[in-house]
Amino acid sequence: MEITEVRVKLVTNKDDRLKAFCSITLDNEFVIRDIKIIEGTGGHFVAMPSRKMSDHCEKCGGKNHLRARFCNNCGTKLAENRSKKDPKGRMKLHADIAHPINAKCRQDIQKKVVATFKEELERSKLPGYRPVDLDEPDDDVPETMS
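Above: the chain's sequence. Below: its structure in token form.
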């Protein structure tokens, strides 16, 4: 697997740990969007795209985020601590949508993404800087898939 493109969109809120969003292209064929670059105590790290975990109300079957106290659909009070715990005993509130399955792959992605982030940060200091547009349509995608 080769990371053939990394696009970084800086986040302007200076007080937040979230520093940028990015997308990576693998082998000029597959794109992963909504990767986050976070500033941690040991430096910048990559957080893969994730979704909020949810469950269903026992009374009406309505879908609710695990931190919801009442059902979004019927208003019934929901049980507390409905989420599973991770190996460290913390509530698991999010699940990765895409993620590396081994440490080497994670290191390769993180190294390339953080390096591109630092390059984009330097470019942002130049006059006439224009941020990257992560919402551009992908090339060679047919209008309808058959």
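Helices lie at 103-123.
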